[in-house]
Write a structure and sequence with these properties.
Elements (H helix, E strand, L loop, with lengths): L12 H5 L4 E3 L5 H14 L3 E4 L3 H6 L2 H4 L2 E4 L4 E4 L11 E5 L5 H13 L4 E4 L7 H5 L2 H5 L3 E6 L5 H6 L5 E6 L11 H8 L7 E2 L5 H15 L1
Parallel strand pairs: 1-2, 5-6, 5-7, 7-8, 8-9
Antiparallel strand pairs: 2-4, 3-4
Helix pairs in contact: 5-10
């Protein structure tokens, strides 16, 4: 079986919707990932890879590994050059705890791929609300803020009640017991009393970044 026969890359997606196809690596074999990289190299295309774990990356041919900008914490990789970073920061990414940092970095790496720098603020969960309040004035100046939280996920509701811009909540699978792999966080955000809070799927930092990009581009 030729792995290339299973692949049909969407090279025209940027022209249709403004965002390029991203490659979800987590469920793909190394053979399929290699075939995708072969096609990308042949077309001189660039791709963002998500959920690429260390074992998959290590198993890729050296010629492809050396061309990938790989970040094991976020499990993202850039094949090709990211867009030049804007000078002005328009997106904030806040996290309840450092346990959420892998999701935070998936957000910021996706934004950076499209040239959007982010103000990253971690460990500002509501158990120590003063830490968030120290940064509120910075966040109030931004049109989009992504709030990442697990466990009871109270942070996005608090942020949504303090800021005028779009707030995108990302529930994470951080927690144990009744936290149920992020389902409690998801349900908490979906039942938030902060009007207009937008919510992604569990651990979906990539989706939150894409939502932020759509907001910024539609406003423009």
């Amino acid at each position: 079986m030729n792995p290339s026969q299973d692949i049909r890359l969407d090279f025209d997606r940027r022209n249709r919707m403004g965002l390029e196809e991203a490659i979800l690596a987590g469920s793909k074999s190394v053979a399929h990932l290699t075939a995708i990289l072969d096609q990308a190299a042949e077309r001189k295309a660039r791709f963002l890879f998500t959920r690429l774990d260390q074992a998959q990356f290590d198993a890729l041919p050296e010629a492809h590994r050396t061309r990938l900008d790989y970040d094991p914490l976020s499990r993202t990789a850039w094949f090709g050059a990211p867009e030049p970073l804007r000078v002005q920061i328009r997106v904030g990414v806040v996290a309840a705890g450092t346990s959420d940092i892998s999701v935070v970095r998936e957000v910021t790496r996706t934004l950076a791929w499209y040239g959007e720098p982010a103000l990253e603020i971690t460990d500002v969960g509501v158990a120590g609300l003063w830490r968030l309040m120290e940064r509120v004035e910075e966040l109030q100046r931004l049109p989009v803020v992504v709030a990442v939280a697990g466990m009871d996920a109270a942070l996005p509701t608090v942020v949504g009640g303090l800021l005028p811009g779009i707030v995108i909540g990302v529930p994470t699978s951080v927690g144990y017991g009744v936290a149920a792999g992020g389902h409690s966080a998801l349900h908490s955000m979906l039942s938030s009393c902060a009007a207009g809070l937008v919510v992604t799927n569990i651990d979906n930092g990539f989706g939150a970044a894409c939502a932020a990009l759509r907001v910024l581009r539609s406003a423009r």
